[in-house]
Amino acid sequence: xGKEEDVRVTLRQLRYxxxxxxxxxxxxxxxxxxxSQPALSLQIQELEGILGGPLVERDRRGIILTQLxxxxxxxxxxxxxxxxxxxxxxxxxxxxxxxxxVGMVSTLAPxxxxxxxxxxxxxxxxxxxxxxxxxxxxxxSDLLAGRLDAAVVSLPLGVLELPERELFEDRFLLAGRPExxxxxxxxxxxxxxxxxxxxxxxxxxxxxxxxxxxxxxxRGVCATWRLQEVRRGAGSLATLSRLVASGAGLTxxxxxxxxxxxxxxxxxxxxxxxxxEPSRRIGLVHRVxxxxxxxxxxxxxxxxxxxxxxxNDTRAMIQSGTTAxxx
Length: 327
Known about the structure:
- The chain has eleven helices and eleven strands.
- The chain is of the alpha/beta class.
- The chain folds into three domains: 84 residues, Arc Repressor Mutant, subunit A (Orthogonal Bundle), CATH 1.10.10; 100 residues, Periplasmic binding protein-like II (D-Maltodextrin-Binding Protein, domain 2), CATH 3.40.190.10; 111 residues, D-Maltodextrin-Binding Protein, domain 2 (3-Layer(aba) Sandwich).
């Protein structure tokens, strides 16, 4: 026995049937919807076949609705009215603002968001962001649960349900009191590579408390290059910067945070590594349902431009010698 064909009522059939009832004849109905009379008649016949009975009877004056036809007509009007409402809502939404929920890791948001918002306002003023600042792990959970539309995080995530777009590279610098960094500059000729630091007496490196992806990245860098013990000591980069600026130890700071934290702690010294410099890759991830939507590209471009501008300013500032007291 063959599989039954799944045949459903279409909006076109309902529109043709509404026109037929309104105009009282097949010829006038066909003219009103800009199709031939045979085309309209065929759609009405198919609708009758789906519903299991005749909707109209013909006579010399035009058509007469059957009882089924009267019931179907009332229901068709309701369906078409609701469809028109949906279309109107969609047009109104497209012509006004577009509100999306976007998260950003807390080790990036304070430094990057101003530039992102400025560029979004210029490129697409109708995009409005509901912003969430949290750890990378929390943002991923919110994305998968549908509480966020997109998030700016460190890559790679490797989550199949979340497409990724890499936006820019954020390199790490060694930060601390200049006199502590001086030991590094004196121990090597020129800038050391990260592996060289395993031979320097740096003391333990400080990093963020558990739950911050940046803290895990710093621990990963230290493990890769056999650096000394890492101690968790702060809940934010601002606190971490002040700790090391006061002489509590050394840490790795991302370029995106340098300008702000250097202004807040003028005594903070900085040291750039030789290649290969440790870094984190910043990217945009979003739910599959958002794929192909225009706002994803606009947001990604804004984050990429703001991020690259920020790290370029940091690199230029450090190269000029205005901030890296220990370099």
